[in-house]
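Structure Section — protein described below
Tokens — whole-number codes for backbone shape
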Amino acid sequence: MPRTTHFLLSCCLLLAHGLASADARAQTPEGEDAASASRPKTCLVLGGGGARGGAHVGVLKVLERERVPIDCIVGTSMGAIVGGLYAAGYSADEIQAILDKVDWNAELRDKPPRSDRGMRRKEDDLRLLGGIELGIHEGSLAFPRGVIQGQRLELLLRKLLLPVATVHDFDALAIPFRAVATDIVKGEKVVFAEGDLAAAIRASMSVPGVFAPVKIDGRLLVDGGVLDNVPVDEARKLGAERLIVSRVGSPLRTEEGLTSPLAITEQMSSILMQRAVEAQLATLGAQDLLLAPDLGDIASEQFNRAPEAVAPGERAADAVVPQLQRYAVDADAYAAFTARHRMPRFDTPVVRFVEVDGRQTGTETFVEQRLVPLVGKPLDVPAVEQTLATLYGEGRYEKIGWTPVRRDEAWGLQVNPVDKAWGPDFLHLSLRLSDDFDGASAYQFIAELTRTGLSEAGAEARVRAAIGQEAQLFLEYYHPLGLRAHHALSTYLQYRATNRDISFVEGDLGDYRYFQAYGGARWTYSPHRDWEFAAFLERGHERVRFDLGDPALRGRYHANLGSLGLQLRHDSIDSSTFPTHGHRASLTYQRFDDALGSSVDSAVARLQWDGAWSWREHRWVGGVRASTSTGSDALLATYGFLGGLGNLSGYAEQSVFAPHTALLRLMYYRRVLHTDSLITLPLYVGGSAEWGGFWATREDASFGSMTPAGSVFVGADSPLGPIFLGWGRAEGGRDSFYLTFGSLLRTLDGF
């Protein structure tokens, strides 16, 4: 059976059957003990280099082929990842399969997949497109210590190293191992010889400024390469008599590459690091072997190119096979080594308890309640990861780690949530612009402050203010209820006002300013992260000031609002910007009644559905919008809005409103800009076909009276949010150019 196939089957068994018992490790064959004692101790030193560290795997493949047993491993950064996996019992082929399978661009981003977040955070994600988030800590602005917090990376390491999760002494691994990190506070090297293997590896690769430091035993740790990128000295301390050293660090930039202050700063750091490395390599003797694979233009940050680095590593080792053969052993001795070099056996434990470390969080109860459903069941790693991903998706945690623990004869989960050090309050700022290239332009500046951790159950308060095209002020207090927090109660106040240049049914109405203010209470029930049922009660008023248009309509309009509503929502869309799969649906019924303080009796029902599909580079989004009102048509709050790119293209943004509206659409787009770097600016081209209508009465509504429309556009998923440049045309000669921020997924209420 091929080794890769064997690895995949092993992983399936690993995840299906659970956790290793501490006493179930394979015993070292007696022949191996004797063979090890009769030859010099050989240690493998794996240096740091980011994605270039994939070359270490190629070196390991040649060592296995040439029957070179390894007695100890020391690694820094990516060398700690490859070395730690090999020391735990993975073979070179199995590690290569991991490199090939892992989507590093996804694993090295903290933001959890949208599908892992609860309904409340999905709505936040759709509303808060782009912008920046700042922390507020003890009354001052605060910032993260790294661009990447490493949440998903640590979960990946935890899963890969689960069979050795209970191995505390790194000398007790299949191959003794050391990981090198740096105490960024004291400027001291930290060498891990024991503890949590996954956490030690994660600390070793915390590149300053990119990855957030890791706090272990009171020490704030970053990448070991800062002080010791090729830790030859630590291998000597393990008693190594012969060293095989793999060096994969990036070379210094040429003069042509020193084009910015950042590049100069990075070059200075590289020079200092290189001097330390050269000092280490100067200690190598005739009995040692240095490998420096030619990795070409593979940059340290291009992790999705890590599999490309395997072949250069293999070529570098192939070039020195005669020298490697002096470390080789006969077939029997190497068979004894491979018998020891394997993952330990383990049995699936039943989770009897959950321990939440509350020392670094104010929501210990909130986390514990989410994990209660896992107790009493066999350990299910995907279920644990899914629960933690949903918790992390709440946006208040810097990271949430876990590890299996044993108390007497019972197994359980120890969970370590860490609140964001730059919180617990967060300020989100965003700016949006629009232009129709016909003299009408607008801007929208939005600031939203969220206070988290107001109770152990996860209560939070929110204030949102906006100026520009729409003025808005929103205040909310949200409180989860129940053991598992499936229920929640929120109270809120909102004021908003906007200018509109609108068309009503068949004619132009003119310019007006619409004001709405109301308060309410909302109860929600969310049994699953993709579903939510809500009931709400609201009381307020609306008014209109007509500025231009029919003189008969000049003046003011005012109405009181009092309503009771029900809403059912589903959301499994994978992205709020340029989705590739999933569905999003909303069905809302809102009844305005004079008994609740409304000026007139009326009701509105709104339906919205979006579905996304993809095939290779091709993506489609289908959509249905419908809004219909009953009773008096005097309340503008019951009207539906159309207009804008992909929303009855050709009409100005939300310029059409009526008591009854409908829209069918199909949008196509494809990505045209690709990059293997962690920093991307996805660019798309596409178009839409639409069919929409708007009517004064339900009797007027018919398919024959609906208007065909369409558009073409270029879109970019920028840090400020999705940006679209497009042109749309509707039947009747209406056309419009658009430069706008926003999502392909629209809401129905015009705001």
